[in-house]
């Protein structure tokens, strides 16, 4: 466990979901966090053991969490996270920025031209590195 984890007021997750990152924040990591710290997850839902997070929040060990992603999306209505004090929930939109859609269209049109011309595409995900597209399927 990193010493920084024990000192941090906020722990921010922005990692992709791979075999190596699935469940990276489990009960042991949450227990190692500074009492009163907050967890922010804008990466992938599968990074966090949600049951362990709920337990740590309910016990008052953590002060709160800001969650943009979940193991199951949308977050089920019966999840205790909805009503827990100190928990902020957003609808998987943390990555959206002003001008994002225009930029996506620009990359798509450029890639379409590149594909037609037989040139390499931009922003290709190397699936051999283990990035997961569908979090509900096993890696």
UniProtKB/TrEMBL annotation:
Q: Which GO terms describe its molecular function?
A: NAD binding; oxidoreductase activity, acting on the CH-OH group of donors, NAD or NADP as acceptor
Query: Record's InterPro entries?
Result: D-isomer_DH_CS (IPR029753), D-isomer_DH_NAD-bd (IPR006140), NAD(P)-bd_dom_sf (IPR036291)
Keywords annotated in UniProt:
NAD, Oxidoreductase
What the entry lists under SUPFAM superfamilies is as follows: NAD(P)-binding Rossmann-fold domains (SSF51735)
Q: Sorted alphabetically, which Gene3D superfamilies does this protein's record hold?
A: NAD(P)-binding Rossmann-like Domain (3.40.50.720)
Determine if NAD is one of this entry's keywords: yes
User: Which superkingdom does the taxonomy of this entry point to?
Assistant: Bacteria
What PANTHER family does this protein map onto?
A: 2-HACID_DH_C DOMAIN-CONTAINING PROTEIN (PTHR43333), D-ISOMER SPECIFIC 2-HYDROXYACID DEHYDROGENASE NAD-BINDING DOMAIN-CONTAINING PROTEIN (PTHR43333:SF1)
Q: What is this protein called?
A: Putative (S)-sulfolactate dehydrogenase
Q: What is the protein's species of origin?
A: Streptomyces afghaniensis 772
């Amino acid at each position: 466990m990193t010493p920084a984890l024990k000192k941090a007021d906020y722990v921010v997750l922005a990692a992709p979901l791979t075999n190596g990152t699935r469940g990276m924040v489990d009960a042991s990591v949450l227990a190692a966090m500074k009492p009163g710290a907050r967890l922010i997850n804008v990466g992938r839902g599968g990074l966090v053991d949600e049951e362990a997070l709920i337990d740590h929040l309910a016990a008052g060990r953590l002060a709160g969490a800001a969650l943009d992603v979940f193991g199951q999306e949308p977050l089920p209505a019966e999840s205790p996270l909805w009503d827990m004090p100190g928990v902020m929930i957003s609808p998987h939109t943390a990555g959206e920025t002003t001008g994002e859609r225009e930029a996506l269209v620009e990359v798509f049109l450029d890639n379409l031209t590149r594909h037609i011309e037989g040139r390499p595409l931009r922003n290709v995900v190397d699936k051999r590195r283990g990035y997961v597209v569908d979090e509900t399927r096993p890696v």
